[in-house]
């Protein structure tokens, strides 16, 4: 086994957040009696991505992101909605989603006897715990670090300092972070002084100033990379 401590991101690394998000939005808009047009869906994804980028940079709090996004979305279309109420209902549907990235659960089962596994995720604690529990993944992890509870987020140094201080006998040379986001997972890991594995399943363009230690297109590649037998 190449590393003894593995830090896993959740969304679009272990769980298919894109599918979960699509299902939650469809259910929310149906409940509200609003047609979820392709234009609205595209606008939401762009706005949501921008807001979470601002969160990563420390310019917005999690509450500001989640409490304002639906209000800001409908402002673009000349409508007024109760943004926080829509967020509450959206969160209800989002909590129910635990769609798996292909091979993720099997991978955790194989890795669990050979290394200590941890979750490092930006987001809402209750949502992440609920989804990991429903996906049958929670028991494979020694601890779960969610930005909401930590009080800092990836890629901030404070987030990783907190994580490292709560992992007994941590050896940075034996630690790696696995995630899909260059700007939070890989940048954060680089700044924290640990190896990084960029899971680029969507073939996104690289960012020159953020270089991962390794790149993979599927979780299947982790078996050979981490030197673990699949069967």
From TrEMBL:
The keyword Transport does not apply. It comes from the Bacteria. Its EC number is 3.-.-.-. GO terms for molecular function: 5'-nucleotidase activity. Keywords: Hydrolase. This is HAD-hydrolase YfnB. The gene is yfnB_2.
């Amino acid at each position: 086994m190449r590393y003894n401590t593995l830090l896993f991101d959740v969304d679009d690394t272990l769980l298919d957040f894109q599918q979960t998000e699509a299902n939650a939005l469809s259910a929310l808009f149906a409940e509200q009696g609003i047609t979820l047009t392709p234009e609205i869906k595209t606008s939401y994804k762009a706005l949501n991505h921008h807001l979470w980028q601002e969160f990563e940079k420390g310019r917005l709090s999690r509450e500001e992101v989640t409490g304002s996004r639906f209000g800001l979305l409908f402002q673009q279309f000349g409508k007024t909605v109760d943004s926080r109420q829509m967020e509450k209902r959206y969160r209800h549907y989002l909590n129910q989603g635990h769609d798996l990235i292909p091979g993720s659960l099997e991978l955790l089962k194989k890795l669990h006897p050979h290394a200590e596994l941890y979750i490092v995720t930006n987001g809402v604690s209750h949502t992440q715990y609920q989804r990991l529990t429903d996906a049958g993944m929670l028991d494979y992890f020694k601890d779960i670090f969610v930005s909401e509870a930590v009080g800092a987020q990836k890629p901030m140094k404070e987030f990783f300092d907190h994580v490292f201080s709560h992992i007994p006998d941590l050896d940075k040379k034996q630690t790696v972070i696995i995630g899909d986001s260059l700007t939070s997972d890989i940048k954060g890991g680089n700044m924290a002084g640990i190896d990084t594995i960029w899971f680029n399943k969507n073939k996104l363009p690289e960012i020159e100033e953020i270089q991962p230690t390794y790149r993979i297109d599927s979780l299947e590649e982790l078996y050979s990379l981490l030197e673990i037998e699949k069967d």
